[in-house]
């Protein structure tokens, strides 16, 4: 008997040697597509609201094990007996990109699945809204849907960007037992190598929220928003990539997204159909090379870059831009054709001068010369800014308008009024160029801080300082007599609840504080030379870190009793600091 068993074992093993019979070890290598994203479970922080027969709701605030069990003593019971469903609204504490997972218990027979309605919201108002009301939509990500939940099991929804989730039991004369409800938060598990801390806690929070806003949008690609649009918009990428450089350092999501924009926009097309967005692509390529110095990657862009630069110069006639496609700076300025022309004139110069530098690095002297000559011809013609903060900021940044005059005549008028979340970054940059660092921080605290005062945990697609008047917080049910900011405002493509409350282009203050208060800026190609020039305004101290290709720069600035700034800096070997 023993001999026969041995024979069977040897015979089975021998099958491994026969032609045409593959084993696990002998299989050819399979292509495995691994996600760069991490999944983390987040439980509700509070119960915002409930209606109907809901028993034991506080149980949902407890961290669970993610597993259904036969012990049914720790469940939340929702029972619908009339027309109004049993409902509950959960707050998960902060904006996230993710899905909802529901773990269920054992409700009385029949053991059929129960039908529930899920509504996600970036605000309480959005989570409570009916689909189609006040712009509430399922565009790009499904955030209002019915879901079948199993008896004694678990189920997951699709992903969206949200903080709040409402659950309604739709089955009448039935009950559902909820053991756990949690968010499966999806994000890149990467360290915050950059940091910022100063004597003003409001500025500290603004820096952190800007960094977190971009972090959430670093999904498979670098999106503009995690609810809407979940797309790679190249204009949005410029503030986002600048934030990535300041906070995370090199990350593959940036070149991956830049390449997507290039590959899906064969010339003579404009990226996203917008001429300035193709210009932003050139500017981003320059800044990316300044920080990381990856020549092999830059060489991959050479053919497309050459064609794009020739296309841009071909749209300049007698020194005046004549760009076709969608002529766009940002949404608040989109009806001001005079300001748009001024902005396009400045953007064309900026992109051509960056293109000239990149072409020189790539050994393309002819294209570099063409870019420089076209930009020089354009500088002779300065279009009117029409009192647009967007246009004045761009004209100032490229040196076509005196920085002090841009500030006194346009940027300072009305304070934060007519700022925008996207171009607000360039308005702050123009204020810095005029030496108005304290004033820029004051604007930042008023404008971006206004979103925080309304309960934001990420920065929005758009914001108007006038919205603050009589506004309810976004993390509460709207009290009688108060304005529902999410439902009442918005414009263009972001009316009401369609308005994205997590938009990466709003992260400019994070970059600005690292560059102008900490004072660190890459000033030579390759990311090895940084200028250190802090501007504390009325801050008592500022300290933080900045990522480079060779490690982290650490810096601290403290005002002494006479108001003099005393600086200490530690830089990695190979990093040169200019002071």
From TrEMBL:
The keyword Lipid metabolism does not apply. This is Alpha-L-rhamnosidase. Residues 193-517 form the Alpha-L-rhamnosidase six-hairpin glycosidase domain. Keywords: Signal. Pfam families: Bac_rhamnosid6H. Transmembrane segments: none annotated. GO terms for biological process: carbohydrate metabolic process. InterPro entries: 6-hairpin_glycosidase_sf, 6hp_glycosidase-like_sf, Bac_rhamnosid6H. Residues 1-24 form the signal peptide.
């Amino acid at each position: 008997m023993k001999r026969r068993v041995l024979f069977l074992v040897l015979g089975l093993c021998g099958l491994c040697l026969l032609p045409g019979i593959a084993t696990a070890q002998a299989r050819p290598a399979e292509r495995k597509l691994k996600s760069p994203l991490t999944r983390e479970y987040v439980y509700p922080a509070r119960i915002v609201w409930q209606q109907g027969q809901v028993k034991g709701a506080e149980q949902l605030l407890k961290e669970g094990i993610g597993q259904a069990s036969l012990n049914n003593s720790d469940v939340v019971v929702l029972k619908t007996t009339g027309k109004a469903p049993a409902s509950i609204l959960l707050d998960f504490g902060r904006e996230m990109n993710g899905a909802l997972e529901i773990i269920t218990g054992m409700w009385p027979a029949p053991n059929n699945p129960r039908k529930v309605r899920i509504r996600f919201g970036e605000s309480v108002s959005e989570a409570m809204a009916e689909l189609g009301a006040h712009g509430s939509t399922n565009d790009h990500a499904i955030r209002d849907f019915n879901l079948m939940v199993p008896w004694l099991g678990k189920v997951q929804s699709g992903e969206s960007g949200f903080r709040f989730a409402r659950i309604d039991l739709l089955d009448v004369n039935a009950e559902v037992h909820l053991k756990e409800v949690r968010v499966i938060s999806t994000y890149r598990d990467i360290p915050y190598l950059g940091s910022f801390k100063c004597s003003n806690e409001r500025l500290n929070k603004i820096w952190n929220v800007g960094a977190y806003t971009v972090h959430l949008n670093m999904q498979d690609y670098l999106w503009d928003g995690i609810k809407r649009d979940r797309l790679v918009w190249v204009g949005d990428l410029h503030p986002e990539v600048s934030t990535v450089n300041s906070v995370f350092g090199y990350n593959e999501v940036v070149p991956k997204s830049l390449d997507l924009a290039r590959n899906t926009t064969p010339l003579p097309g404009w990226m996203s159909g917008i001429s300035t967005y193709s210009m932003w692509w050139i500017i981003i390529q320059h800044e990316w090379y300044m920080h990381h110095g990856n020549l092999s990657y830059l060489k991959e862009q050479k053919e497309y870059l050459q064609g794009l630069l020739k296309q841009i110069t071909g749209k300049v006639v007698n020194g005046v831009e004549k760009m076709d496609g969608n002529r766009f700076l940002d949404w608040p300025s989109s009806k001001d054709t005079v300001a748009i022309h001024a902005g396009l004139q400045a953007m064309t110069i900026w992109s051509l001068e960056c293109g000239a530098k990149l072409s020189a690095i790539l050994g393309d002297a002819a294209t570099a010369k063409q870019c420089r000559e076209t930009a020089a011809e354009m500088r002779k013609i300065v279009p009117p800014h029409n009192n647009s903060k967007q246009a004045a900021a761009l004209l100032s940044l490229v040196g076509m308008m005196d920085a002090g005059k841009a500030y006194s005549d346009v940027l300072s008028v009305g304070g934060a009024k007519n700022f925008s979340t996207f171009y607000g970054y360039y308005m702050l940059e123009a204020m810095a160029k005029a030496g108005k660092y304290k004033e820029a921080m004051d604007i930042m605290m008023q404008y971006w801080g206004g979103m925080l005062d309304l309960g934001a945990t990420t920065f929005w697609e758009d914001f108007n300082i006038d919205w603050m008047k009589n506004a309810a917080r976004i993390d509460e049910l709207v009290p009688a007599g108060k304005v529902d900011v999410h439902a009442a405002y918005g414009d263009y493509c972001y009316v009401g609840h369609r308005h994205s409350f997590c938009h990466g282009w709003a992260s400019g203050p994070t970059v600005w504080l690292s560059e102008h208060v900490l004072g660190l800026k890459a000033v030579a190609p390759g990311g090895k030379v940084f200028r250190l020039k802090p501007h504390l305004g009325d801050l008592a101290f500022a300290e933080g870190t900045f990522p480079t290709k060779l490690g982290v720069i650490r810096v601290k600035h403290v005002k002494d009793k006479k108001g003099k700034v005393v600086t200490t800096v530690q830089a990695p070997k190979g990093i040169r600091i200019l002071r």
